[in-house]
Amino acid sequence: MLATTKTAILFIICMFAAIACKQSSSSQANNEYPEREEFIVDLDLDKIKERGYLTAIMDNSSTGLFVYKGKTMGYEYELLKLFCEEQGLQLRINITQNIGEGFNKLNTGEGDILAYNLTVTKERKKRIAFTHYHNLQRQVLIQRKPENWRQMKLHEIEAQLIRNPVDLIGKEVVVRPHSSYYDRMVNLSEEIGGDILIVPGESNVETEQLIRQVAEGKIDFTVAEEDIALVNSTYYRNIDIKTPVSFSTQIAWGGTQKCKWPARGAE
Known about the structure:
Blueprint: H1 2-18, H2 45-51, E1 53-59, E2 66-68, E3 71-73, H3 75-87, E4 90-96, H4 99-107, E5 113-119, H5 122-125, E6 128-130, E7 135-137, E8 139-144, H6 154-159, E9 172-175, H7 180-191, E10 197-200, H8 207-215, E11 221-225, H9 226-233, E12 239-244, E13 249-256
Parallel strand pairs: 1-4, 1-5, 9-10
Antiparallel strand pairs: 2-3, 5-13, 6-13, 7-13, 8-11, 8-12
Helix pairs in contact: 1-3
């Protein structure tokens, strides 16, 4: 247990050391992070230590931060808490309603790190600097099992589920707009040579809410990273998450491009 804790702390320290400053080469607008005036965030780990606290921008989710029986929990939250305890810092949390708000808060100095379950993409690299990835995740299709799946044999259930992405041609898949999921569905539609009907969800609806809508029968399909899907499959036993729609992608946290974090390996 002690070794695991030390590994987690070392991992977070490496992540903070890995955030590098770089200038954006694009002025294209994207609704995931709408354009707004940004200022230079002149802050590094030493200055955070001098200040005495770290502000993490997080979402209220099963992988980010949530409250259960009065106790704050969450994967990202636990890692941040371990790091702050090791560094003698107070942890402050800035909760956001959606990922677009998170990007805006990061780039306007309202937080030091965006501790979301972020897929690393080329477009996002134009807007933020990523930490070294802390895991690899596939994106998977979220679909509903047949109504009477508990009374069915496994092969009967399988026969009614989509296992080949080609079978998504002509199907509606609802995903968060201007997200890595949306981009993946566009690319997949091109790859399989047919049109997937990609439906953007409401901008303030997060992935876990779309998963719930699948479970409740309000929509038929959505897409999520595999770890998010696994957590939610424990809540909603009638969803299937076994069909991958991507190769493994990097999952990381984000820092501002205009930061002054130390380079990896710096003393």
